[in-house]
User: Which sequence fits this backbone?
C-alpha cells in the first residue's frame, strides 16, 4: 500500500467506525451546535492522525500549524497549469481532467447570439465567439482543453466545435 493510500484509508476509517455515531465524521456532521460539532471533528481527526505513519503526516498538507502557512490559492498564484496540476496531484492526489463528457440539460441563446449551455454535472459554459453553434438539450457534449487555457465544446455525435468558457 502506498503512503498516500494509507493516509486516505486512515482518514476514511472514522467514517465507518463502530461505536458512538457522534464520534465519526458523518456523526459529527449531524450535531447542531457549532462548538460541539467542531470538538467532535477535532476528536475524530486526532484519532485518525494517530493511525497515519509519521512520514505521511510530514508530507500531507496541513489545515493549520504553529507557523503561518500560505493558502493553497496564494501558493499556486502565478504558476503554470502544469505546475498547478503537479502541486494538486502531489498534495491532495487530485488531477485535473483534459476533457469531460456530459449531457446538455439546458441550451439558451443570449441576446448577443452566443450559446449558454448547462450540463448535467451542474457546470455552465458560454460560447466565446458569435458564430453558429447548433446544439440542443439532451445532446451529449465533449469539453476539451485547448492551448493557453482555452476550452472547446462539441457534440459527441458530430457537429461544430465552439470555443467556450466556464461561467459556473
Assistant:
Amino acid at each position: 500500500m502506498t503512503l498516500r493510500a494509507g493516509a486516505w484509508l486512515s482518514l476514511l476509517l472514522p467514517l465507518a467506525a463502530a461505536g458512538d455515531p457522534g464520534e465519526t465524521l458523518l456523526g459529527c456532521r449531524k450535531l447542531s451546535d457549532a462548538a460541539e460539532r467542531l470538538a467532535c471533528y477535532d476528536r475524530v481527526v486526532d484519532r485518525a492522525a494517530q493511525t497515519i505513519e509519521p512520514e505521511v503526516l510530514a508530507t500531507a498538507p496541513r489545515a493549520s500549524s504553529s507557523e503561518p502557512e500560505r493558502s493553497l490559492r496564494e501558493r499556486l498564484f502565478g504558476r503554470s497549469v502544469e505546475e498547478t496540476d503537479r502541486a494538486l496531484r502531489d498534495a491532495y492526489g487530485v488531477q485535473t481532467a483534459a476533457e469531460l463528457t456530459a449531457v446538455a440539460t439546458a441550451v439558451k441563446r443570449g441576446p448577443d447570439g452566443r450559446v449558454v449551455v448547462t450540463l448535467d454535472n451542474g457546470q455552465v459554459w458560454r460560447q466565446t465567439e458569435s458564430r453558429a453553434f447548433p446544439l440542443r438539450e439532451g445532446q451529449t457534449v465533449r469539453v476539451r482543453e485547448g492551448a493557453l487555457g482555452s476550452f472547446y465544446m462539441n457534440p459527441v455525435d458530430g457537429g461544430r466545435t465552439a470555443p467556450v468558457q466556464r461561467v459556473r
